[in-house]
Amino acid sequence: MTQAVNVTITGGAGQIGYALAFRIAHGDVFGPEVPVNLHLLEIPAGVRAAEGVAMELDDSAFPLLNSVHVHDNARSAFDGTNMVAFVGARPRSKGMERADLLEANGGIFGPQGTALGEHAAPDVRALVIGNPANTNAAILAAHAPDIPAGRITAMTRLDHNRAVAMLAKKTGAPAAAITRMSIWGNHSPTQYPDLFHALIDGVPATEKIDDHEWVAQEFVPRVAQRGTEIIQARGASSAASAASATIDHLHDWVHGTPKGDWTSVAMPSDGSYGVPEGLMCSFPMRSINGEWEIVQGLEISDFSQGYIDISVEELKQELKIVEELGFTPGL
Ligand code: NAI
């Protein structure tokens, strides 16, 4: 029997955690051969609810679920962990300024980064979902300097999937026919969904939709604002689709992106495309042998570059704030 992997979900009793835990326990990340020990980390007020989730996981009798554990401290939750989905974060409350939000989350991701660096397994892979995801991941990485840079990522896969879905709707093609979509920048309204390299059944998307107005006025803003659209309709933020995107990101990390395709991941820049080195920025990304690699050599038009610059500038500003608050050492 293959050795079990340890997977930790922070915020395991929240909406995304609730949808995510069952997919991981079902084997959707590692596949049907690999048993999973699931660890749910919660703040003390969430522990009872996490115990309820653990009871439901038991009751599902998943063949691959080796064990479920509930934790109220990061050190035990990360002890020997191979993979962590950082979902738990401090949400923005009414009247809260961006700096206050960054400070509150720095207070979470700083200590969790230290605990991760000290207790996780050497092969740990971390994905930050909790917002502001890119900067939370930068804080996490700054506190776990021994974890290789590419092993701590932030999620833009939901934005990627939304962009694929929107292009599919526009053209009538199935989502599976769309490849090479890209999300650049921050997981925020400044993100830039880029369809200029996307293919539909192997044909450039731009040949199928010769409608620049739709791209600029509908596609780009609507992908970026899709989260708000969901909240208005559902009365709650995206949860199942966020969990599904988390599974997609982790699955592709472990198994590789399909041949000829790529996805979108926020990871520390290596200086590609003029993005300052170290900035936790979303790029088109391939997963090869378990590592993410930035797709190189794409031609970026002035139209695209304008958007990318705005989002990169926002990331720099967020990082400047958390540097001033003492959470990161700077680039
Ligand atoms: P939620 O409020 O339902 O759940 C969050 C859970 O995290 C709660 O159970 C809370 O008790 C727990 N938590 C808070 N601080 C914690 C800490 N320090 N340690 C461990 N657990 C902690 O929220 P939901 O809907 O599950 O969303 C979680 C986060 O994901 C939010 O920040 C949200 O903005 C973000 N998000 C990100 C997306 C992305 O594409 N990157 C998409 C959708 C949501």
UniProtKB/TrEMBL annotation:
**Looking at the record's lineage, which domain of life comes first?**
Bacteria
Q: Which PROSITE patterns match?
A: MDH
Q: Does this entry carry the keyword Isomerase?
A: no
Q: Which residues bind NAD(+)?
A: 11-17, 105, 112
Q: Which CDD domains match?
A: MDH_chloroplast-like
Query: What EC number(s) does the entry state?
Result: 1.1.1.37
Which of UniProt's keywords are assigned here?
NAD, Oxidoreductase, Tricarboxylic acid cycle
Q: What is this protein called?
A: Malate dehydrogenase
Native organism: Populibacterium corticicola
